[in-house]
Here is the input.
Amino acid sequence: MKNLILSLILIITTIIPFPAYSYDRDEITNINVYEKINPAIVAIDAKILDGTSSGSGCIVSPKGLILTSSHVILNSSDITVTTSDGKEYKAKIIKTTGKNKDLTLLQITCNKPLKTITLGNSSSVKVGQKVLAIGNPFGFSGTLTQGIVSRIDTKRNKIQTDAAINPGSSGGPLLNTSGEVIGINQAIYNPDNNTSNIGIGFAIPIDEAKAVLQ
Here is the structure.
C-alpha cells in the first residue's frame, strides 16, 4: 500500500506542473517598461583630460541618433557608445544646447535599425505619480530604479524625483508607467559633497528635449 501511494504521488506530480510564479500588478508594469525601453538605452564613455566621463543615453532614431546630457561629453572628441547588446560604436556630436538645458545629440553609424524610446509629454506630469529610471550608475549597465515625482521645480524647469539617480545615470530616461520618456535624468543634490544618491534627483522635462530634436 505504501509503495502504491508513493507511485500515485509521483504520477500526480509528474502530470500536474507546479504553478508558475505570479507577479503583482506593479511588478508586471516594471517588467514591461524595462523590457520595452532598455534595448533603446545606451552607455556613454567620453575621454576627457583627467580620465573618462560616463553616462547614459536614449536612442531616438533607428538610424542611431542619441539624446544625452551635455555634461557627459563636455570637452571630449572621443566618445564611445555601448548598446544594450554590448556592441560599441564611436559617436560624433550633432548638436549641443547651452549649459542650463544640458542636452546633446550624438550620432552613431550602425548596419541595422535600432530600438528607440517613446517620447511622452512632460506638461502633464503630476507630483506623486510613479516613475522609473534606467541608466548605467557607476557602470552597472541597464539598471532600473523606481520612485515618484517628488516636486516640479517650475523656476528651474526641472522634474524632481526620489527614483535613484547616481553618477553614470545622466542622460538616461525618466519614464512614466506607460514606458514613455517624460524627462532626461540630469543631476543629484549632494549638500555634503557625497557622490551617491540621497533621494533628490532632477530630470530635464522631455518637452525641452523635443525642441532640440526638432
